[in-house]
Amino acid sequence: MSTYSRLPVTFVRGEGAWLWDTEGRKYLDAVSGVAVCNLGHAHPAVTDALCRQAGELVHTSNLYQVARQQQLGERLTRLAGMENAFFCNSGAEANEAAIKLARLYGRHREIAEPAVIVMEHSFHGRTLATLSATGSRKVQAGFEPLVRGFARAPYDDIEALEKIAANNPNVVAVLVEPVQGEGGVRIPAADYLARLREVCDRHQWLMMLDEVQTGIGRTGRWFGFQHSGIVPDVITLAKALGNGVPIGACLARGAAAQVFQPGNHASTFGGNPLACSAALAVLDTIESEGLIARAAALGERIRNGLRTALENTAGVREVRAKGLLIGVELDRPCGELVARALERGLLVNVTADSVLRLLPPLVLSDADADRLVQEVAGLVQGFVSE
Hints:
single chain; 386 residues; alpha/beta; Aspartate Aminotransferase, domain 1; Aspartate Aminotransferase, domain 2; seven-stranded mixed beta sheet; four-stranded mixed beta sheet
């Protein structure tokens, strides 16, 4: 179906931060499959885990105990300070699970029509419930009637949440991204999540964080919320968890961890041995190669390099970053930069119309990071000078 506007290139091989197309041309990948391939391409640890597991057992279903799933659940909950996990196949499915969990949590509190506060410019997926939660008319258009039960607030605005609380007694949860990725790499105030935690505690709301893009090391911590010194009630994950193998997770603690009971939710493929083996290899590799600290250092190197290179460039509004989630905001739409970069052997992404988004893998070398800065600076300067 015609659901994608694809670029005129087909990749056949990858290694680390590099890809090769059918013509043998080499590209520096600063997209990473949209924040998926944190370990880069063809990482031997993931390859070995997949080959070994595929030779033993791929799928049995959740009718039975799944050892790899149990191991992965224990690892993730320990890293995140959570208590239990539900496994699925994507970020949208993980957010669907969180939304269902919040509604059931509200019903247990005898709230007939539970509502979840979501944010303007957010992105949570393209299923009917998650696109309804998403703060983008572009994503929603044509799919009405939208799913009810969402109240919307400006991002990074605690006072707006308080106003909703005063006027909507049905609110049971808040769903928010630690950094808005699709919304333009929007980084909130340093105390935003801490203040949000206090509001949720005061009103007995679940604090639910969409860490689909920020999780698994992307921001220089295992999870984006760990920069704020708080712990949420629910976390959703996907993208980098399997380094390209489809897997998602919804983690919970406290009251949220006790909501789902057998029969409330399920996934046929969710948490199968193959996907969980890939995810365990990802976690092992990030730990053994010190890639959390590496992401923080690389992000600072690239951000500072771009700020220096673009300091006096008219048309550049801001360079911002949280680890290796990097945005260069221009004063005009810049979608054409994606094709221009491709011609230069560079893969980049544009989001929110005017933000050049960079999502390089955590295994990027210093030399490739410097090359990325040089290429992006040249690309932007050439574009804004026209």
